[in-house]
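Mods, move this if it's the wrong board.
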Amino acid sequence: MEISFATMIGIFISVVLVNNLVFQGFLGICPFLGVSRKIDMAFGMGCAVTFVITMAGAITWCIMHLILEPIAGRMFDDPKALNFLQYVAFIMVIASMVQLVEMYLRKCFPPLYTALGVFLPLITTNCAILGACLYIYMKPETQPFLNALIYAFGGGLGFMLAISIMAGIREHIRFSNVPKPFQGAGITLLVAGILALAFTGFTGIGK
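Not the wrong board. Structure tokens:
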């Protein structure tokens, strides 16, 4: 795969806007809905997820291309023979990155650490992060390391953008006259659906 500035820009725009992991991939919906009640909490969660996705994407790329594939090629004459280990490797890396984020927030931002509560360790099971790592390995355009890193970082920014927009809207909804049948989860899901529909307007930008 050719490495060019245009390709990298296309990958970044695609994962942030066109193929947003939340609105187009429907990944990471649990923290997206659970932590998007306040903008400060949503932004903090978005930053944490961006860090974890970026680091996990870079490390898992190295594990697959520099460790598992060479070993499988020498032992089984098939670079893909050990692909069944990728899920174990990815989850271990993601869990380690989440522990780093948790220790950092507990040390430097205790109020945010307390506000995020159970959703912080649940980043480990955030399917958006695992999905991004799997997409990086499967997509031809993200096989070069730099492209993979841009995809991972863009995926995190896309998640942060989605959850921050949702939080801003939900803060305004609290002061709105929402019809009784739509109050609570109903209006939240409606807003999420409208946002997902709105993001389809970016289709074609990254091409």
